[in-house]
Write a structure and sequence with these properties.
single chain; about 200 residues; mainly alpha; about 75% helix
């Protein structure tokens, strides 16, 4: 899986190299070039995480759609799944790990979002939900196209991904605010000392 992921990340160079050259030619700041390139690598990493490994079974797309176990593979009711019916300690830990990993997966998206632009909180929530739905939709469509069903499409994952985006945005927004206050306070002190 690691080899497949690294190969997939290599494909990001197809976008990164022309973009970086175009941005350099148009005298864009170097920090912006680095930021955009890192964002593209991150997006490719997320896609690799939710889609790989791809095990093609030679089943046609239409056969996959007809025979896909929708009831066992798609959960649309939040916080209601097989884990909650099981009292075993391992299953609860597995559920918590799944939630945590889904949150961690999208925290960088929230960070990048804030670094690109400051948004109203309603916009952040809307984008966060869109990111969550997009990751689960990509996962489902990939499974349908290649005929494998080892991934579950779950509304809980959508919510955890959305939480990750909001958390990342909030953390970096807080850090930026603290930094700006620190710089303003330092400049005010230097003005007072100079007088």
């Amino acid at each position: 899986m690691l080899r497949e992921t690294l190969a997939f990340l290599g494909y990001s160079l197809i976008i990164i190299i022309p973009l970086a050259l175009w941005m350099l030619k148009n005298d864009k700041p170097k920090y912006k070039i680095i930021l955009y390139c890192l964002f593209i690598v991150y997006i490719f990493g997320v896609i690799a995480q939710i889609c790989l490994p791809i095990n093609y079974h030679g089943i046609t797309f239409w056969d996959t759609i007809k025979n896909y176990p929708y009831r066992e593979a798609i959960y649309l009711i939040p916080f209601k799944q097989q884990y909650f019916a099981i009292d075993e300690h391992d299953e609860v830990l597995r559920l918590l790990k799944s939630y945590l990993l889904n949150i961690i997966l999208t925290i960088p998206f929230g960070i990048f979002l804030r670094l690109f632009k400051k948004l109203r909180i309603q916009s952040v929530f809307a984008i966060a939900l869109l990111v969550g739905f997009s990751t689960e939709t990509i996962q489902l469509v990939t499974g349908l196209i290649f005929g494998y069903q080892f991934r579950i499409t779950h509304i809980d994952d959508v919510l955890m991904n959305a939480i990750g985006v909001v958390l990342g945005y909030g953390l970096i927004n807080f850090a930026i605010g603290k930094y700006k206050r620190f710089v303003a306070h330092t400049e005010l002190r230097s003005v007072v000392i100079d007088e």
